Amino acid sequence: MIAGFFAAMFAGHIYILAIVTAVQIVSFKEVIAIANVPSRAKNLPFTRSLNWYFLGTSMYFLYGESVIYYFKHIVLVDRILLPFATHHRFISFMLYVMGFVFFVGSLQKGHYRFQFTQFAWTHMALYLINVQSHFIMNNTLEGMIWFFLPASLVITNDIFAYICGITFGRTQLIKLSPKKTVEGFVGAWILTILFGFAMTNVLMRYKYFICPANDLGSNFFTGLHCEPNPVFLPQEFTFQPPLLLHSPPRTFHIAPMQFHILVFASFASLIAPFGGFFASGLKRTFKVKDFGESIPGHGGITDRMDCQFIMGFFAFMYYQSFIAEYRASVGGVIETAIQGLSAEEQIEVVRGLTKYLVGQGQVGDGVFECLAGVLPRRRR
Predict the structure, then answer these.
(1) If you average pLDDT over each of 174-183, 217-226, 256-265, which comes out highest?
(2) Quick one: average pLDDT of 59-72?
(3) CA-wise closest residue to 338 among 67, 76, 108, 31
(4) Are 199 and 149 in contact (CB under 8 A)?
(5) What are the φ/ψ torsions at residue 43 (nearest 5 degrees)?
(6) Which of 77, 184, 303, 353 has its CA 20 to 30 A from that of 42?
(7) Residues with Cβ < 8 Å from 237, sequence gap 6 or more?
(8) At 377, is the secondary structure helix, strand, or coil?
(9) Residue 197 C-beta-side C-alpha neighbours within 13 Å
(10) How far is CA 134 from CA 13, 26, 86, 280, in A?
(11) What is the mean predicted confidence (pLDDT) over 25-47?
(12) CA angle (149, 153, 157) in 5-degree steps
């Protein structure tokens, strides 16, 4: 599994997206299954169908949002895809409403409590799994580092917590997980920070990891090309040692990402494990040992991903709040032109840009003359 994961990561972003999609579907199936056993006894055939319908509807909405946002320069210029992109949210809403109406129509006397419980359970699963998986996919499209680094921090923290716990763990951390110790928790935090600092230093050297996925056909060997985010570039910092106030300030160079990784590693160590504690409490509620048997000897996919979901969610929010650069993009300009300008105004934009590019020597005079003869003049 580890070899397959690294092979997919180096093969390209599209393979990681496929893995995230598969994990999302299997995890949803496992979570729904632990509370769906009574439906067979109560002979309610539409319960499962509605679960999968709402999963498909949520995936259509979330995937569509990502595709339109990251690939609008492709979607918005396609005659077939343009109506779907323009009205994507309304279409998604109507699909959900159809499922809602079908659910109300399927209510049967004597089973109301069970059916409404299943309805609420399904929506909780969609939020805890699908919505958070959506942000993990967005992290991948923003740059492979934003997917791999948070995931690796959670994995290594779990390993370090186990090693520190069995080595010098004494004090129980939480009753939901009796084997978790305070010593293992703190020791893993320190070691995860050191690991994150070292791993970040390695990943920042490769544009394949730090560049957004502007080409889904690329892989580690073909690489990606972009202007790196300033967070990955070494900057000069000045530090005045508190015990040497009369000495000159010390100057050092370091990439700001090395400071950000302290936050990522701390969240992976101190907060993300509570995703696992939450999953443990959920399993105790339904009196099951594991969510499934997808991974022999390890339980289900959800048992391995319980901390990854909240970590991916955090990584997206932190990236968008403190790291992302908001620049005008080709897709954004096209979207503004399509939605905010009339056809005549769009033609004027094309003519003006062509004239500018001719003046800059980027295209030949023949291009402008050709467009001038083909495009109609704007009516004054």
Answers:
(1) 256-265
(2) 92
(3) 76
(4) yes
(5) 55, 55
(6) 303
(7) 251, 252, 253, 254
(8) coil
(9) 10
(10) 14, 15, 20, 23
(11) 74
(12) 170
Q: Are 70 and 14 in contact (CB under 8 A)?
A: no
Rounded to 5°, the CA angle 195-20-118 comes to: 120
Give residue 52's identity as a one-letter amino acid code. Answer: W
Label residue 43 by pLDDT band (50, 70, 90).
Answer: low
List, for residues 124-172, the tens digit of each pLDDT value. Answer: 999 999 999 999 999 999 999 999 999 999 999 999 999 999 998 888 8
Which ranges in the chain belong to alpha helices (H)?
2-11, 13-33, 38-41, 46-70, 72-75, 81-86, 88-105, 112-125, 132-142, 144-168, 182-203, 207-210, 257-270, 273-285, 301-318, 330-340, 343-359, 365-374
Distance in angstroms (rounded) separating the CA atoms of residues 181 and 162: 9
Which residues, 6 or more positions from 203, have their beta carbon under 8 angstroms from its beta carbon? 145, 148, 149, 209, 210
Q: Which residues contact 185 (CB under 8 A, 6 or more apart)?
A: 161, 173, 269, 270, 273
For residue 151, count CB atoms less than 10 angstroms from its CB and return exposed for 0-12, middle for 13-18, buried for 19 or more.
Answer: buried
11-20 burial code (b ≥16 CB/10 A, e <16): ebbebbbeeb
Report how far residue 250's alpha carbon sits from residue 332's, in angstroms, rounded to the nearest whole number: 43
Tokens of residue 57, six digits: 């509807």
The pLDDT score that the predictor gives to residue 375 is 66
Write the secondary structure of 204-259 as one string of H (helix), E (strand) and C (coil): CCCHHHHCCCCCCCCCCCCCCCCCCCHHHCCEEEEECCCCCCCCCCEEEEECCHHH
163 contact partners, CB below 8 Å, separation of at least 6: 184, 187
Q: What is the pTM of this model?
A: 0.85
Tokens of 63: 């995937």
